[in-house]
Amino acid sequence: MRLVVVTQILTLLSAGAMAGSVAAPCTPVRGSCAFYTDCLEANYHCGEEGYPLGYGNKYCNKFSDEQEKLSAEGKDWMLDTMVCLQTALVPYATGNTSTTCDELEHAAFATHPACYVDSGFCELPPTDWVAVVDIVGLKTLFESWDAFLASLEAAEGCLEAWTYLSTI
């Protein structure tokens, strides 16, 4: 009888573990900012000024809160960009946490240009560009070397896209 009970408990625990792996906490969800707190900050403990809370979560929530400033295309871009930025950091969230908070921040900012451009930033109407700068804050774009480089690389990506489109 005990063996049957233990087997049933193990079966239930195994099923629960399998169910948990389907919706792993380090899997970004479109429209959610929880990845930064529940996964990155939980693993790295960088604090309020570190990238997970001080930038990733802060601006993810800021965009969510101020999305009415964006057009329909801008809102789609915002959601696509959120998922892209979080997905790019999944290896850091689920891998070896010997990465320092500074290294994590540098790696995170390095993902920004491609996520912005690949999600369609360059094709947005200029009113959305203004809204993005308003949401982020002009000062923020130049606040750190990594943020400045990410801004320049995104602008360069748009210039390359526009140059290519003008040749078609």
UniProtKB/TrEMBL annotation:
InterPro entries from the UniProt entry: Stanniocalcin
GO biological process: intracellular calcium ion homeostasis
Superkingdom, natural source: Eukaryota
A Gene Ontology term for the protein's cellular component: extracellular space
Keyword terms of this UniProt record: Disulfide bond, Hormone, Signal
The keyword Iron-sulfur belongs to this UniProt entry's keyword annotation: no
Keyword Disulfide bond attributed: yes
GO MF annotation: an example: hormone activity
Pfam families attached to this UniProt entry: Stanniocalcin
Signal peptide: 1-19
Family, similarity comment: Belongs to the stanniocalcin family.
Subunit relationships: Homodimer; disulfide-linked.
Name of the protein described by the UniProt record: Uncharacterized protein
Organism (species): Cylindrobasidium torrendii FP15055 ss-10
